[in-house]
Structures are given as C-alpha cells and as structure tokens.
C-alpha cells in the first residue's frame, strides 16, 4: 500500500524516509520520551537506519513523520498499526521529539490520522494504550474523544517501579459526532 501524505493547518504528515534516521535516533534516545511511552527496548543506530529505510513499505501499518508546514524536518511520528481490515480496527501511537512537545502538533497529527483511519480506511475503531504517568497525553486523547476502556495494572516499567497502562478507544460514530461543528 502506498503510504499517504496528509496536509493539516500547521503540519504535514508524510512517509518516514531513510534521511529521518538522525531525528528518529534522537527521539528513541530521549529518556523522558522513553519513560512516557513505556519504551524499554534498546535500539542501535544501525537498527534505526534500517528501520527508517524499510518502514514505508511495511504492510499492516502506516508510519508517518510529523513535519511543520514549510519544513520537511522530522518532528515526531504518528503510527496506525495492527490494522485489521476484517474487524475494522487499528492501534494508534504518537511520539514527538523533545523540543516539539506541547505545541499542538500531536493534536493535529492525531486528528489527521483519525480522519485517514475512519474516512480513508473505513475502520470502525481505533485504540491505544497510554501510561498512567502520562497525564498530559491521557488528557489529550480524552479531549479528542477517546474513552477509557480498561486498565492494565503494573504493565509498564517506570524506572525501578511500575505503572499502569490505560486502554482507550474511539469508535467511528464517536469520531463522526465530534466532527460536527
């Protein structure tokens, strides 16, 4: 499947490319970002280079770079993965580079990706996990219409301790209701 480019008011979502590897490396090496997303895997630079080279052709997922209108710089990524055409569902994931969090880019990226999920792919449901320690992300998802569906207790590491994963979902009719002006 050809990966789309999506245009928003502030941002453009485009397929991730090999030349994004430096910025992706910065993102996966960021301690705060790793903590807030529950990332425990350790990546090598050659693995990141190979991933950036190949991800645009991966099946069953759409990985897009978040860029600002007028610039092609990778600011973060938004991913729709585990796409199940039969059930009509997918998982959503967002990660922004350290200097670009809290500027509204993630909100717009999610809105664009949800439009693709429901209008472009015809999905019925989009779900995600957010860590209980990431109150800002949880609030963002709630403001976009996601509802809490459950909790995975002590499912993620938080340094030497643990934190819960909060399961959230958005159904197509809920998305459509939120689009009415």
UniProtKB/TrEMBL annotation:
Transmembrane segments: none
Gene Ontology terms, MF aspect: acyltransferase activity, transferring groups other than amino-acyl groups
PROSITE patterns xref list: GNAT (PS51186)
Occurrences of domain N-acetyltransferase (ranges): 11-173
UniProt-listed CDD domains: NAT_SF (cd04301)
Pfam families per UniProt: Acetyltransf_3
Domain of life: Bacteria
Keywords: Transferase
PANTHER family, sorted: GNAT-FAMILY ACETYLTRANSFERASE (PTHR43415:SF3), SPERMIDINE N(1)-ACETYLTRANSFERASE (PTHR43415)
Name this protein carries in UniProt: GNAT family N-acetyltransferase
Organism annotation: Cellulomonas humilata
């Amino acid at each position: 499947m050809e990966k789309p480019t999506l245009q928003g008011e502030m941002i453009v979502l485009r397929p991730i490319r090999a030349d994004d590897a430096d910025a992706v490396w910065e993102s996966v090496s960021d301690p705060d970002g790793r903590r807030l997303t529950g990332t425990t895997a350790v990546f090598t630079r050659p693995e990141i280079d190979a991933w950036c080279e190949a991800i645009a052709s991966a099946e069953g997922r759409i990985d897009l770079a978040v860029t600002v209108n007028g610039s092609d710089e990778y600011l973060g990524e938004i991913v729709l993965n585990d796409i199940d055409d039969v059930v009509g569902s997918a998982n959503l994931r967002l990660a922004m580079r350290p200097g670009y969090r809290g500027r509204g880019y993630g909100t717009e990226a999610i809105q664009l990706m949800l439009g693709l999920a429901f209008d472009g792919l015809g999905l019925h449901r989009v779900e995600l996990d957010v860590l209980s320690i990431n109150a800002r992300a949880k609030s963002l998802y709630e403001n976009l219409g996601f509802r809490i569906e459950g909790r995975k207790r002590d499912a993620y590491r938080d340094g030497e301790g643990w934190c819960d994963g909060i399961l959230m979902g958005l159904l197509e009719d809920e998305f459509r209701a939120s689009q009415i002006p």
